[in-house]
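Sat 14:20. Reprocessing the chain from the morning session after the first attempt stalled halfway. Input below, unchanged.
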Amino acid sequence: MKGYFLDTNIIIDFLAHRNPFAEHAAVLFDAALAGKVKLYIGAISVNNVYYVLRKVIGHEKTISLLNQLMELVDVAEVTGPVLKKAISSKFKDFEDAIQYEVALTLVEVDAIVTRNGKDFKNSELPLFNPMEALAAL
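Finished this time. Tokens:
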């Protein structure tokens, strides 16, 4: 089974029903529910998703959605060594650098799924948007 590491934008698209991207993200989560793919996120995504969604839908609904998310993904730790690598990386966006370094720690990850491939232009891992990820299954 393939393993995909999800960038935070994919998670927010799915949980916030952010159009026009929500449908593609939902298909990816449906594939995970069907056992066709294993989804991974970095722990940093949980607080970033909370920060964005809480402003729009409030604390209680956001917590409910995060609980549901936890049933669909495996969460990878953000460790001191991961942060040190991210700090010294050439990424322009620090959060993306953390995401990337977390993804590299997971041998189960075959690719990173993001809508912002340019943010990961030096990635050693393949990059897919959600529909490319599904096509690769």
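The longest helix spans residues 43-57.
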